[in-house]
Amino acid sequence: MTDFQTVRGFEEVWRPPVAIRVRLTRAVLKPAAGPNGAEVRARLVRVTNRAPEVMVKVTGRTRDPGHLRAHLDYISRNGELDLENQDGMLVGSRAAIKDLAVDWAAEQLADRRTRADAPFSHSVILSMPAGTNALALRDAARAFAANTFAGRHEYVFTLHTDTPRPHVHLSICSRGHAGERLNPNKADLERWRQDFAQALRDRSVEAEATARRARGVTRKPERTPLRKMRDRHEAGKGEMSQVRRAAYQEAAKAAFQGDTRPRPWERRSLERQAGVRRTYLAQAALLKGSPDPKDRALGEKVETFVRSMPAPDSQRLALARELRAANRQMAQDRPAGRDRER
Question: What is the CATH classification number for the domain harbouring 108?
Fold first, then answer.
């Protein structure tokens, strides 16, 4: 087998879109191991095969003893599900869960250096798409939590399988054993995604953790608070958020006034995505010129992967399509309504 070669700058496709803090001792993306770039090749195979993407998300923070206990009750389904702690011990009753909440809260309240609004715990979800082996997911979550927090922070976790996507709820005591505070930023979350994906692969579960741009996705996901406000509005329980209202106003200009010229942020996104696709195609050309038939086949797969990438999109243009579709539907329904009135 020949050495696996990459075009100059290819690693930029997978580079996380965040700066890595100096204090981190491990790189977010590990360099290729060995002279033949085995890790780079393996990752490119996973990406072109569209390996399932992991989700690691901080979903909230508890701010007082009552909130902490309520959250632990929630993830344990009021004691119906066992919580497993950092020592592998099971916390399996509501009384034990209450004692755990009291212990974590006591550590927080006893620390005079702690700000009044400092969180008592951080809530994290580790998730994979539907069809993932739930027990392997739980085992990977156990390994990830031990590797990331053991010896520094107490934590508990439990597996939920009551939704199509199996997921693990991980609750971490925000105050560490040495008094350090858990305060993850985007770089930490990116490292957690990489580590969790590796823990799954170690258990024979295909998993990847790539940036959106590496998959051809240009739209950012809706932020959780805004999504919850939208859900309440659509359920008739609240007003539309000002952010959403402004987004629809911008979209209406594209939908009905022909204002489709890219905004500055859309233009930057298009340029970045064009660069990503050019880099993939350059890598494909290099692979197709390799004497190794496996590399040539991979080059063909990379080209197919680029051709199948979704067209660049933005929230403004997506909402514009939604508005035009709604307008067409109203136009179709209007004659039928008039006939019924007659």
Answer: 3.30.930.30
* Alpha helices, DSSP H, located in the chain: 38-48, 65-75, 94-110, 134-149, 186-201, 224-234, 242-256, 264-288, 293-307, 315-341
Question: Is position 30 within any domain?
Answer: no
Lowest mean pLDDT among 13-17, 137-141, 316-320: 13-17
* pLDDT of 230 higher than 80: no
The CA dihedral of 311, 15, 193, 221, to the nearest 10 degrees, is -30
Q: Looking at the 3D structure of the chain, how many domains does it have? A: 1
- When comparing pLDDT for 228 and 268, which is higher? 268
What letter represents residue 163's amino acid?
T
3-class DSSP state for residue 169? Answer: strand
- Identify the bridge partners of residue 286 per DSSP, sorted by sequence position: none
Q: Residue 197 has which token pair?
A: 């994906």
Look up the pTM and report it. 0.79
Amino acid, single-letter form, for residue 246: A
Q: How many CB atoms lie within 10 A of CB 132?
A: 20
d(CA 224, CA 16): 21
| Per-residue model confidence as pLDDT tens digits over 151-165 | 999 999 999 999 999
- For 163, the domain range is 55-194
Contact 121, 61 (CB under 8 A): yes
Query: 21 near 279, Cβ under 8 Å?
Result: no
